[in-house]
Every structure is written in structure tokens, then in C-alpha cells.
Amino acid sequence: MVTDARMRFYRCLGGCRKRIVTGFFQFVLAALLPLLMFPTAMAAGYDYQLSPQKIATDTYVLQGSQQHFRINNGGNIQNVAFVVTGAGVIVWDTGPSMLYGEQFRAAIATVTDQPIAKVFISHHHPDHVFGNQAFAGDIEIYALPATNKAFHQEADGLSQNLYRLVGNAMSGTEPVPPTGRAEAGSFSLGGHEFVLHALSGHTAGDLSLQDVTTGVIFAGDLVFNGRAATTPHADIGQWMQSLDYLDALEFDLLVPGHGSVDDGRKAIFDTRDYLSWLVATLQQRAREGADMAEVLTVKRPARFQALSEGKNEFQRSVAHLFPRYEEALFESGAATTTHD
Ligand SMILES: [Zn+2]
Q: Label partner for 37 (CA 20 to 30 A): which of 98, 236, 262, 329?
């Protein structure tokens, strides 16, 4: 059908406006077909089908898909959570879009009548922060200063990219920055004792929230479970230090940024294992003088083959990390030459 339309279009370029118009509408229809195949992705009707899962006393998680951003997941690839204290609800991350944020609030309202007391944002990546719009107003949205800074620098570009990747589920979404400044330290609310941990490595600002009362820690994207880690803003050395820091804390349940809740240390171990391999591999290939095309063909060890988005994330990581390691090698080589 598209081919016919295209032929008519070209044949008629000399005149024949009517046929051009017909061909144009056939093109438009073909472009809309993917959306028609995923009706839930249509405009304001996008339904994320959110269903809070209770993981501990007062504590609920909404787990996203393990995929990358796609039309058919509406950008819902992350975990968000909330804690119903005796004095209001603590919200952990707001999701990828205004519609997600609105449906997240509606999902919270199915569990409790309590108002939302505070929102905390783990880091500035779009899947965790673009639901802010649905919470902004009289609710304070807290993030680390480094997260606020990165948001102001990058939110517009990240938003445009997400519109391109997930389409109409983003309808009406505008980047709304965090309003409050999160700092490391403890606070209590409604019978729960919380500790905020100011970390970094996945991005320049990675907040973790520990509920000492329930033994749950919300780790954000410092921890991935069953999915290859994303590294576009990563400092892997700092990230590994943050993983060691989390590992040393007392907790019973860990809510990762992506993947299932962990009742032990396996998700921390696995994230560290993957990042260690990634760094070691890229550094070794840089030392061997490999070019990027060769590095992209590196076979991932069997233990990483089952990770969701493993191949895609490895290729993305090579694209933005490998040049850094090549440069570091060049600079250290240049320094050696100078001293020699
Ligand atoms: Zn994420």
C-alpha cells in the first residue's frame, strides 16, 4: 500500500494534486499503524495499569518493565514506591511522564486517604523524574543539589528524547524541576525513622532512602536487578564506592531502580560484578589498541547473557565510556613520555 502510494506520489509530481493528497493520507495512515496496534499508547488514554505491591509494613512498590523505553511500555521501565507513615505518604520517584504521575497518585489513593507529605527523587534520569508535574504545587519535591543542577542542564533534551521514544504516553508532559534540597541525614515522620544517603556514581547525584523502621532501603539506579546497568552519566569508580557503602548498611529489603525487590545482597553484588567486568574489559581493549567497532563485538560472559537489555546497554556503554578510557590511556602515556 505504501509502495503504491509512493509511486502515485512520484508519478504525479508534474500535476495531479488529488492523487498527491490521496498518497499523503495513505502515508499518514501507515505512520499511525504502530499506534493503532498499541491502542493504550493513544494520547490521553494511555493506561499504565499501575498496581501497588505491598512489600513490607506500610511500604508499596510499583515495578516497571525491564525493557528500554518503548511505545508499548509508555516509558514505564523504572520502579517507584511509597511509604504510608502515620503522618502522610512519602513518595519515592515520580515516573516517566505526567500521565504516569497522575496514575501513580491515583494508585496511592487506592491504598490510603493520607495526603502526600514529601516526594524524593533518586536522580535526574527521565524515567524517575518526569512524573513530577502531577505532584508539583503544594507538595515539596526533594532532590540532591547535584540532581537539581543536572535536571536544569539536561531536562529539555531528555524530555525531547523521551517523546521520540515512547510517543503519546508523554502527552502533556513538561519537565518540572525538584523544588526542595535533599541532604544526607535522618528524619522521622509518622512513626517511621528515615535516613537519606547522598551518594553518586550512576549520576552526579544519587539519593538513597533508608526506612530504618521497616528495614527497607530504596537504592535508586545505584542498583539494577536482572537488567544491565545504564551508564550515560556514570562515574564507575564512584558508583562502586556507593555500592560498597550500601552493602555496609543494615537492611532487610532493597528496592532497586530497576528489577525485582531483593531480600539480600545479590542485586548489589550483581551490579558490582557487571560494572567491574565492564570497566576491566574496556580498559583492557583500550590498552590493546582496539577500535570501537572491535569492542562492540566483545562477547559478554555467560553470567551476563540473561540480563535484560544486556546487548543494547553494553553497546551504549561502549559508545560513551570507551572514548574516556582511550583518552585516559593517551594522557597517562603522554605523562610517561614527558617524565622519560
Ligand atoms: Zn532508571
A: 98
